[in-house]
């Protein structure tokens, strides 16, 4: 019975926290990135937030595979998340950008990087991945 009470207490705390967070957003508090919580993001804020997320993910993923000393495997293992980061950033441009030339560049980047990722994954499959 103690376990059921603990689960109920944790659930109640979670609900209270969610309610408090909602109230805090309504009061205009900011989240840790400094963005206004509970407000509608402008295109500028939304694209900046999306670029920062893409950068953070790319950096985290590029740092994840340990180096092995095999230059070929290390190159491929670290370039895949690098290329995925380029795709993620290009998709932000396609969502928020307005300049036709830059949007074309972003579309070309998505196509090229997807092809290169596919090549590297095939290479890993035949040469052993990390």
UniProtKB/TrEMBL annotation:
Coiled-coil segments on the chain, per record: none
Which parts of the sequence belong to the DUF305 domain? Answer: 41-123
Q: Give the species.
A: Trinickia violacea
Presence of keyword Transferase: no
Question: Superkingdom of the source?
Answer: Bacteria
Q: Which residues cross the membrane?
A: none
InterPro entries, alphabetized: DUF305_CopM-like (IPR005183), Ferritin-like (IPR012347)
Where is the signal peptide, in residue numbers?
A: 1-23
Q: Which Pfam families match?
A: DUF305 (PF03713)
Instruction: Give the protein name, as stated in the record.
Output: DUF305 domain-containing protein
Q: Which UniProt keywords apply?
A: Signal
